[in-house]
Amino acid sequence: MSKGKKAGNILVYALMAALIAGLGGFGISNFSGGGTTVATVGDREITAEEYYRAMVEAIRAQEAAGATDLNFATLEAQGIPSQVRGQLAGIEAINGEADRLGLSVGDAEVARQIRASSSFAGVNGEFDRDAYEYTLEQNGWSVSEFETSVREETTRQILQGAVSAGVAPSQQMVDQLTNWLGERRSFRWAAFRATRYLAELEEPTEDELAAFHAENEEAFTLPETKRITYALLTPDMIAGEVELNEDDLRALYTERAAQYVMPERRLVERLVFGTAEEATAAREAIEAGESDFPAEVAKRDLTLQDVDLGDVTRDALGAAADAVFGLEEPGIVGPYPTDLGPALFRMNGILSAQETTFEEAEPDLRAELGRERAARMIEDMISDFDDRLAGGATLEDLAAETEMELGTIDYYPGVDAGVAGYEAFRAAAEAVTESDFPEIDTLDDGGIFALRMDETVSPRLQPLDEIRDQVADALLAERALDRAREEAAAAQAQLEIGGTLGSDAATVETAQNATRANFAETGAPAILADAVFALEAGESTLVDFPGLAIVVVLDSIDPVDAEDPQNALMEQQIRAQVAQGTASDLFLYFAQSLTSSAGIRFNDAGLNAVNSQLFR
């Protein structure tokens, strides 16, 4: 199967997944719009059901992005319904053009794609007619409607391929992007750290603290908070009460043998080739200095992460084991046969064999087994605690009568200290209201909790007396950073009169041939990238960073290295991406033109009926 055809099929499968899975929870079969037409595009109709389904997809996309309490007014303010109508109109305009051209796919292709979808597979993994019809029925589709949608989507893919075929970007655009990404800059920088000056600062006076507190009220103001009382019980709280015997501990040690007795391992990457000749040619190019391992990986549209095997034992390497474990320092061996084909292996590190004795492991084993059994004890208590709460017991009663402990917390989003370090607790605290009754909920470590919201506390400025140390630390940090900026500015001034960048306060670091594409690999702080590529050769600038003042000096600007194989690969990727973007734009303009020519007429009453059904 060609790459183009495969990509088309993936899009069709994605459509079917959206049609089937995207309706979950909304009950499309309950839609009461009947056969209402909400719009016409030329001589084709957009039905109420189609608009409903598309709106459901848009709502689910918003929810997946974190939106809550959605209503039609919120969606309309974001232009969502308008976008949905435009997309549906574009689809029907393209369908109309396909009809005009007499373009379609046969029943055999529709059947093949439906049979290939896992959405309709039976227990044996093969297409199941009953499962197919049942799934469609549950989501309000008839077989003919669904098969028509698959046929039209596939036809649109054919039309899109015809419109976009042969699109090639201009060489000028490719050159501009390649030069922009591949231009090389060499620079130096010195980071002046605020912490270096803290010891030199005097403690602030009371008047200075009060003034700083008053000038920075926003920084010391707590947001609206929920004052919460909770009862908590975790395995750690009762693990000491659990009785353990040595036999159990030794059994756990045996179970964890792979953790405590580890053979010698190697950090290995494996790059598979189609033939042994290709693998041999790649290794010879690496040995001759004409290429390197990362470049060979990139040539195969892979990343180093894709070929990383991690730390492996001799048994995991098959025919390559002796060669890889025979290396005494990092290197490349191969090609050797593998299940996937001939491969080169790069060994990056040696991990010696390690063994932890039972006696050495016993404290950890005891803690682990104690927590595990404590968690089971807590699980057995849940029913009793639930009954107590249902019978009218308060959190204070639970703390007084059981192993649970009582606590309070002022909670707001962002608090993650103490009990708020548990995700389940934070979720419950976010959702709780003053009208909710406490319920037992579980924590990911086997613990349990119940909480009660006592009151809402309005945003408030924390009094200086309560946060004196916090205010003092913030004031000293600001003063230290001011000192760091002064030192950085003085170093920059020395540069302008022919001095050097180095000083006792900061070590000079350098980066050679940094590009926009590889800047993260230079070791320079990412925050310097914009500054480096805004400077001219010989210029310097100051860059602020939390706790740092950085002087950066641009030494030279060099064009793209035409001999670097990575740049040739980058140019190929740019060409492909620009071609893909141009093709997408071309088809978008084509669809807009078809829509404009066909003409759109909306049935406002029908649209309003669907919107009312969605948010009733």
Automatic annotation (TrEMBL):
Species of the source? Tropicimonas aquimaris
Q: Which family does it belong to?
A: Belongs to the PpiD chaperone family.
List residues of the PpiC domain.
246-363
Which Pfam families does this chain map to? Answer: Rotamase_2, SurA_N_3
Q: Which domain of life is it from?
A: Bacteria
Q: Where in the cell is it found?
A: Cell membrane
Show the Gene3D superfamilies listed in the entry. Answer: Porin chaperone SurA, peptide-binding domain
- Keywords annotated in UniProt: Cell membrane, Chaperone, Membrane, Transmembrane, Transmembrane helix
Specify the protein name: SurA N-terminal domain-containing protein
In terms of one coarse class, where is the protein primarily found? Answer: membrane
InterPro entries in alphabetical order:
PPIase_PpiC, PpiD_chaperone, Trigger_fact/SurA_dom_sf
**What topology does the record note for this protein and the membrane?**
Single-pass type II membrane protein
Question: Does the record carry Cell membrane as a key word?
Answer: yes
